[in-house]
Design goal:
GO terms for molecular function: catalytic activity; nucleic acid binding. With about 1050 residues, the chain is α+β, with helices and mostly antiparallel strands. The protein has 40 helices and 27 strands. It has a six-stranded mixed β-sheet, sandwiched between helices. Helix 17 crosses helix 19.
Length: about 1050
């Protein structure tokens, strides 16, 4: 029977069986018994099921000729505490709503008590504590007690349920009518009244639900910066990706597993824990390295503390990053001592090597054991030491150019998009007509399979030092983990001698070290290009015949497999992909074009085990989808689906009357739509029609966000200054990427290989020596400082700088000016008394170089500790550590540079009308060029025969935000709605600005069946908004107070250009 089969599957688990059985039997209150009822009763008795339904309370309401019955039954097994309740509510049906409350398993409190840590109190407790113990375990336990002492638990408010009075009265009325009807079952009037009341209750409940959701959306609009708001938005976008859904799926996976809980844990361990025999590794035999083996300084620990993510989950010891970030000075000193003890001894506490592995289902994959994602949570204190060691190793390897130029994973100022940029230039935009091939090699469980011996061998070969070697060796060996999945927890498991720890800070760098020799092997293959991003190896060939391409790629596969021998790594032919890029020819094709394709022999690649790597029609490289025919149809379809998904979300959280307002809705679009477009759009070759499609998608979702109809004029929409076109987004992303690549040797190598001269178009740059750079303190550049669109912010910034440093004897101001009749600039430095301290002439045509020389003069030839420049690019270049050779020569020639710390900051140029130090140095520099000094507030002359316009020398925009905002503000005419306007008023304001406010002409265009004509009833002209407001003479003739048409038009347009409430 069904009962027997169900119980055979569930075993000893708690079971609830319920439904409308419609099987009359005396046990559940029927006056008669049927064979079906007797069979059901017999099966329930034989299987030991318990009936929890109360037969005295019927679950189905009868009619005038039928009695009330109980066909809805609920049985349970292996449950001790079950509560069955008949709510007596039927929502218009003849069956009542039943509530079954089952208490099984460990009981959990509802919700989560809010705990607040008073970090000031915590630091005071730490300062008063006696830190005499030398044991890290005792120190951590004391730390946890101090956090608990400074933690306050906020008492939960009473769980009050809000009840709508009208809905409550309607339910009471229905219950009263039902009581009357049970006494008068033949009264049809009562039945009709009950049916009508059911419909009224349903309609009002839906209205009430909409009102409550609108209130929730209004709350989200005012709390857009809170994590809870974004959690709700992500849940609306992907309900299956929430934590509750993940827990449900994990529990479902456990319950459907054919075996015991211990068997389930053993299979999880076999799948996700590296099965390797522990190995004893040899001692370090490489070169001594005093730089890396030095004692760890407290400054290094403090720097690592500032970079910790305070939202990271703690490990088994319970210490969070937020706790570490709030340590007092003495505790940081003590913690540094503990770290140094481990560093010098080469031994890490076992708590730092014990992980808690939590498994969650992979998104978009079938729910099964092999499709889980392990997340390893280790000690935050141990990860702090990993941060320190990682910073040391990274700096050492980068300074000595030890990392290959084609290895771009997990490195400073490099990203996945750098691989996409190379594919774009060498494959997608290559003008050649021959076949091009892209091979994505997959490594089987790379991070879990690489042997510890391989990593340690690389550390030894690179000469990273004995202490680094001992630390890494101890870090990798003797590790343990506890698997936690659902409510199941395993015993501690030995991790073996393979695999880098999941979730570890140091693991990506260690994996890079394991593959550090592979790029050199691949570079020996002629015609092959490649990048390595962690375990993603991408190989491509951009020219040659099909036979040459096959030979080149097959050689590359064999080279990779030979290198991986003995490392524990292996190529997976099944998951690797080969794409043959043959773009569809446009225009007239030759007569034998189809014939050539039909006789073409396809390229085939095989791995060492004889398996063939599959050839695909599209390949995904680090998120970039490339199609074999050179079109972008699939990418467009996916972006279209994303836009449609976000549009549905916007419709749920905002409408023209309430919900999330314009500013926050646009933030949502930028986060979920524009970011996805910008990630892939700059690296594909778009046809004109495809770009038009992308622009349409962007305009469509922005129109919805601000409440405009789909037929809104594109010109009017652009004048709002809210969005960027696809060309602007591509330009901004490309410029920002080029600027980022210019900061590193690897990035500059990529640009040079691609023939991009961005990093040299403003002059050659060279590195500032590290010891000199460390003496320079340069704060981050302030945002939103455009000379035209942010004049108020610039003036405020200039006033602050003038007030802070204008009279400071240790501060100097610097500037440069161009010679009028010869190639060159002058650089000037003045002190707080506005006297020239030093100056120089530079033979260059670059304003950027001259501004850098001015700063270098101040550093090298003055005793100033504060240097103020009005060149953003010059200050940025010093912050990035790369300046012109002219500036570097002056910088290194000064003997004072290494004797003091120098604070270099930026002030806006031409921002103050009154006499200022920046204006004085500007005049001084101009005076040195044999030109008359002019006031900094006066407009600079322009023209080819005179002085060059000063605005031509302005700092160029190099960040994505600055460029996109510049385009938006440049064409933006209409201001945004005032913040105090309601959502409905804001939408109407935008409709008025774009001439889409409801009017007969627009309504007839959108709804021709509903609005049959667009004619004005006074003059038979087309009834547009302008016609109704001031053009129609018939309307003005009926209104003796009407203003003149010209006057009204001027006032109207002036009002739309102002966002002030009084206008």
């Amino acid at each position: 029977t069904l009962f027997r089969k169900t119980l055979a599957i569930t075993g000893n688990q708690a079971v609830v069986i319920g439904g409308n059985f419609n099987a009359p039997h005396g046990t559940w209150g029927y006056r008669i018994e049927t064979q079906k009822g007797r069979n059901l009763w017999l099966d329930a008795q034989q299987e030991g099921l318990m009936l929890v339904t109360d037969p005295s309370i019927p679950t189905r309401t009868g009619t005038s000729v039928c009695a009330d019955t109980t066909p809805d039954l609920t049985f349970t097994k292996n449950i001790l505490d079950t509560q069955w309740t008949n709510t007596q509510h039927d929502l218009g049906s003849d069956h009542a709503i039943l509530e079954i409350l089952v208490r099984a398993g460990p009981r959990k409190t509802k919700g989560r008590q809010l705990k607040i840590v008073d970090w000031d109190k915590f630091r005071n407790i730490r300062e008063e504590a006696d830190e005499t113990t030398g044991d890290i375990e005792e120190w951590i336990e004391k730390l946890k007690r101090d956090v608990a002492a400074a933690t306050q638990t906020v008492p939960p408010e009473a769980q009050l349920e809000s009840v709508d009075n009208k809905l409550l009265h309607m339910w009471e009325a229905k219950e009263g009518l039902q009581r009357r009807w049970k006494k008068q079952r033949h009264n049809r009037t009562l039945r009709r009244r009950i049916a009508k009341l059911n419909r009224d209750i349903e309609q009002y409940a839906q209205q009430l639900c909409r009102q409550q959701w609108e209130e929730k959306c209004n709350d989200m609009d005012s709390q857009i910066g809170m994590a809870k708001t974004w959690s709700i938005l992500r849940h609306l976008l992907n309900p299956d990706g929430t934590k509750s859904a993940e827990r449900h799926n994990i529990n479902r996976l456990i319950q459907t597993y054919q075996g015991t809980e211990q068997d389930f844990l053993k299979e999880i361990e076999k799948t996700y824990i590296p099965q390797a025999t522990p190995v004893t590794h040899p001692d370090y035999t490489g070169l001594a390295n005093g730089d890396l083996d030095n004692k760890i300084g407290e400054a290094e620990v403090r720097a690592a503390l500032q970079k910790l993510n305070t939202k990271s989950a703690p490990g088994l010891d319970g210490i969070t990053n937020k706790t570490l970030r709030n340590l007092d000075d003495e505790s940081i000193t003590k913690l540094t001592e503990y770290i140094n003890k481990s560093w010098e001894a080469g031994q890490i506490p076992h708590q730092w090597k014990t992980a808690k592995i939590v498994l969650i289902p992979k998104s978009g994959k079938r729910l099964q054991i092999t499709n889980l994602r392990p997340i390893s949570l280790t000690s935050c204190v141990g990860k702090l030491m990993e941060h320190v060691v990682l910073e040391r190793i990274t700096t050492y390897l980068e300074d000595r150019d030890a990392l290959p130029l084609t290895m771009i994973g997990f490195r400073r100022n490099l990203s996945t998009q750098d691989a996409m940029l190379q594919l774009k230039h060498q494959i997608i935009e290559d003008p050649g007509t021959s076949t091009k091939a892209i091979l994505g090699l997959d490594l089987k469980k790379a991070f879990d399979s690489v042997t510890h011996a391989t990593v340690l061998e690389r550390v030894n070969e690179l000469g990273l030092g004995k202490r680094t070697y001992d630390y890494v060796r101890n870090f990798l060996t003797g590790r343990k983990a506890k698997i936690m999945i659902g409510d199941l927890v395993s015993e501690e498991i030995e991790m073996g001698s393979a695999g880098t720890p999941q979730g570890s800070v140091l693991s990506p760098m260690l994996f890079n070290l394991a593959l550090i020799g592979l790029p050199a092997k691949l570079q020996e293959i002629e015609g092959l290009n490649h990048t390595i991003y962690a375990d993603d190896i991408t190989l491509w060939v951009s020219n040659g015949s099909d036979g040459q391409i096959e030979e080149t790629l097959q050689t590359a596969v064999e080279t990779v497999e030979r290198y991986l021998e003995g490392t524990g790594l292996a190529c997976s032919a099944e998951k690797s992909e080969l794409l043959l890029y043959r773009p569809t020819r446009r225009g007239r094709k030759p007569g034998n074009y189809q014939k050539d394709i039909s006789h073409r022999q396809e390229i085939q690649l095989r791995t060492a085990d004889g398996k063939t790597i599959p050839t695909v029609d599209r390949i995904r490289i680090l998120g970039l989808l490339i199609e074999a025919k050179g079109n972008n149809g699939e990418t467009l379809r996916r972006l279209d689906a994303t836009v449609a998904q976000i549009m549905r979300l916007i419709k749920r959280i905002a409408n023209k009357h309430s919900g999330m307002k314009e500013e926050n809705t646009i933030r949502l679009i930028q986060a979920f739509v524009i970011s996805r477009i910008v990630y892939v759009a700059p690296y594909l070759k778009w046809q004109v029609a495809e770009k038009i499609k992308l622009d349409c998608l962007i305009r469509k979702i922005f129109k919805l966000a601000i409440g405009l109809p789909i037929c809104t004029s594109t010109e009017k929409l652009l004048q709002l200054g809210l969005h960027n076109t696809i060309d602007e987004l591509i330009e901004a992303q490309r410029t920002a990427q080029y600027e980022r690549l210019s900061k590193t040797r690897t990035g500059r190598h990529i640009l040079e290989r691609l023939g991009v001269a961005y990093h040299t178009q403003h002059g050659v740059k060279v590195d500032i020596p590290r010891e000199t750079r460390e003496t320079m303190i340069i704060p981050p550049m302030p945002k939103n400082m455009h000379p035209e669109h942010n004049k108020d912010r610039r003036e405020t910034r200039a006033k602050e700088i003038q007030k802070k440093f204008g009279n400071d004897k240790d501060a100097v101001f610097v500037d440069a000016a161009r010679y009028k009749r010869r190639r060159g600039f002058t650089a000037a430095v003045i002190d707080s008394d506005k006297r020239i301290k030093t100056c120089a002439t530079i033979r260059t045509t670059s304003t950027e170089t001259a501004e850098e020389v001015a700063i270098a003069l101040a550093v090298a030839q003055t005793n100033a500790t504060v240097i103020v420049s009005d060149s953003q690019m010059a200050v940025r270049n010093f912050a990035n550590g790369r300046i012109s050779p002219e500036a570097l020569r002056i910088l290194l020639a000064g003997c004072q540079a290494s004797k003091r710390d120098t604070y270099i900051t930026w002030t806006p140029a031409h921002a103050l009308a009154e006499d200022s130090n920046n204006g004085a140095v500007h005049d001084a520099a101009r005076g040195l060029t044999d030109r008359a000094a002019i006031s900094s507030a006066a407009p600079a002359p322009s023209g080819r025969d005179g002085a060059v316009d000063e605005w031509e020398w302005e700092d160029r925009m190099i960040t994505y935000t600055d460029i996109t905002k510049h385009y938006r503000l440049q064409r933006g005419i209409f201001p945004p709605p005032h913040p105090k306007l309601t959502k409905k008023q804001s939408v109407e304001w935008r409709q008025l600005q774009t001439r889409t406010y409801p009017n007969p002409a627009l309504s007839h265009l959108i709804y021709p069946d509903m609005y049959e004509t667009d004619k004005c009833k006074h003059c038979e002209s087309r009834a547009t908004l302008e016609h109704i407001l001031w053009e129609c003479r018939g309307i003005s003739a009926h209104n003796k107070y009407a203003a003149s048409r010209d006057s009204l038009r001027a006032r109207w347009e002036a009002a739309l250009l102002s966002s002030a409430l009084e206008d």
